[in-house]
């Protein structure tokens, strides 16, 4: 008597015949296990990563641009960021250097990208290597010398890993990478194609050190069955490294407008400039907090409202929730009067001077100054330019709010340091302290900053005190007379600043104000 059973593995149907004959049963089972052993993972649409993170390509081009200094030499941190193993790996260093210098020379133009149509990862337990197959679509770009970029979704957290890539599609056929917690990208140089045809790149990936295969699997596919591939692939072409010396047509599929590049650069500027402090995660959504009605920012926004926002000192965060749902982002526009445009220019100039002074004092990294200059170029805003277009005004407005937020953050940090360094004859008295919280999980489509300082009040409420009212004085006296069952005065916020959230969604640009968010004055009550 024979029984037929069906097993499904993706789209493959396997029939197993079971018999009382032991030999027959064993042979069929061996065939069944051998067929199921390879673990195949498929990314059907690698472009999806770019839609979910529209700064992906812009961030890559910026990282390549920043890999070298103005003298054309690689920065000390660049090899680790791009997985280059050592000083002896001269070919990889040369590729990175050529890409970086070319992107700098052409002001980030002359770059084209191409997505693989699909990526397959085959993992067999009895093989030391893991096979990765890239299906490449037809493209004239493949006639140029391609650079395969593997971008990390998240940095390596456990130690370091040295990897060997082998393929007839690579030039040279064998290339290496050294991955650490600082590695953001891996660059592999490929062979130019002779014709405009579809290609398959089969690349064998193997860890150099024995016993580290599981670590390699963790890097490539997360180490778990059904998990996503952790490396995002992209083919990059540059006029500087191609065999054709003509200028490569610049793709606008990802950085289509100056506004989008401006927003991506603004996020990087905030990341590079904000004070690095320990931040406590919050377990609630920002939209669950009380808010004033959203105010539209656009060509019809009232002059009075725009003047109030420009002159406001409240901290600001930037949220562009439509990035994940309706890419590309629509550029915002403003219509400022000549008088308000002049005021915007003056405040922008003043805050830029303060920012450059922070850089000069060493409080802000030098790279922030370069990014600030890049933002000015992208905004195309000139002081006293009454003919500035609405999109240019909008970018200048965002830059001003970012600079106001940064200078405010460093002013608070300076005051807190001075308070801690001041003389004290007893325990700390009631005063303002720093409280930094993460915003990444609170705000949908957060552009930046990633964290903000809400401040908090800490310290003793013993007499004598400043900023104490009559009730607190009498309450303290009452408790000191032995009435210990009463609650004593507590160090609490007395005044607050709002938190401003600039939102761009499908309906336009809006300013949402969250009142009473940032403590700015403390007292005993």
Automatic annotation (TrEMBL):
Q: Which GO terms describe its biological process?
A: development of primary male sexual characteristics; gonad development; negative regulation of androgen secretion; regulation of gonad development; regulation of ovarian follicle development; sperm capacitation
* PROSITE patterns, per the entry: TGF_BETA_2
Which residues does the UniProt record annotate as the domain TGF-beta family profile? 414-525
Q: Which compartments does it reside in? A: Secreted
Annotated GO molecular function terms are: growth factor activity
The record's keywords, sorted A to Z, are: Differentiation, Growth factor, Secreted, Signal
Q: What is its main location?
A: secreted
Q: Which GO terms describe its cellular component?
A: extracellular region
Q: Which family does it belong to?
A: Belongs to the TGF-beta family.
The protein's name is: Anti-Mullerian hormone
Please give the organism. Answer: Xiphophorus maculatus
């Amino acid at each position: 008597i024979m029984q037929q059973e069906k097993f499904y593995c993706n789209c493959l149907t396997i029939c197993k015949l079971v018999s009382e004959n032991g030999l027959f049963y064993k042979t069929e089972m061996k065939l069944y296990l051998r067929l199921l052993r390879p673990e195949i993972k498929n990314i059907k649409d690698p472009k999806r990563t770019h839609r979910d993170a529209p700064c992906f390509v812009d961030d890559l081009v910026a990282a390549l641009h920043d890999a070298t200094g103005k003298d054309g030499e690689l920065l000390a941190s660049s090899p680790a960021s791009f997985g280059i193993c050592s000083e002896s790996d001269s070919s990889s260093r040369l590729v990175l250097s050529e890409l970086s210098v070319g992107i700098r020379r052409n002001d980030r133009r002359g770059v084209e990208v191409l997505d693989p149509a699909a990526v397959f990862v085959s993992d067999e337990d009895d093989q030391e290597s893991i096979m990765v197959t890239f299906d490449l679509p037809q493209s004239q770009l493949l006639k140029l010398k391609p650079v395969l970029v593997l971008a990390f979704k998240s940095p390596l957290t456990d130690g370091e890993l040295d990897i060997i890539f082998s393929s007839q599609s690579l030039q040279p056929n064998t290339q290496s990478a050294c991955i650490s917690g600082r590695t953001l990208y891996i660059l592999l140089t490929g062979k130019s194609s002779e014709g405009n045809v579809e290609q398959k790149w089969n690349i064998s990936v193997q860890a150099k050190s024995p016993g580290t295969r599981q670590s390699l699997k963790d890097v490539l596919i997360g180490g778990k069955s059904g998990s996503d591939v952790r490396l995002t692939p992209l083919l990059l072409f540059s006029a500087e490294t191609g065999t054709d010396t003509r200028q490569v047509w610049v793709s606008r599929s990802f950085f289509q407008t100056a506004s989008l590049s401006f927003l991506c650069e603004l996020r990087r500027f905030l990341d590079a400039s904000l004070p690095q402090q320990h931040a406590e995660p919050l377990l609630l959504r920002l939209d669950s907090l009380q808010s004033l009605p959203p105010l539209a920012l656009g060509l019809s926004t009232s002059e009075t409202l725009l003047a109030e926002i420009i002159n406001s000192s409240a901290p600001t965060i930037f949220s562009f929730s439509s990035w994940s749902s309706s890419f590309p982002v629509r550029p915002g526009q403003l219509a400022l009067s000549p008088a308000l445009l002049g005021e915007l220019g003056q405040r922008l100039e003043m805050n830029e001077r303060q920012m450059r002074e922070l850089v000069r004092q060493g409080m802000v990294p030098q790279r922030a100054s370069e990014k600030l200059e890049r933002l000015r170029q992208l905004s195309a805003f000139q002081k006293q330019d009454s003919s500035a277009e609405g999109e240019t005004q909008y970018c200048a407005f965002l830059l001003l709010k970012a600079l106001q937020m940064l200078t405010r953050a460093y002013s608070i940090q300076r005051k807190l340091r001075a308070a801690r360094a001041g003389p004290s004859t007893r325990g700390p008295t009631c005063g303002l302290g720093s409280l930094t919280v993460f915003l990444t999980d609170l705000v949908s489509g957060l552009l930046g900053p990633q964290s903000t300082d809400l401040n908090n009040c800490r310290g003793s409420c013993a007499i004598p005190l400043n900023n104490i009212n009559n009730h607190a004085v009498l309450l303290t006296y009452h408790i000191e007379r032995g009435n210990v069952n009463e609650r004593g005065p507590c160090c609490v916020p007395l005044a607050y600043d709002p938190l401003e959230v600039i939102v761009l969604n499908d309906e336009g640009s809006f300013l949402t104000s969250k009142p009473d968010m940032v403590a700015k004055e403390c007292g005993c009550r």
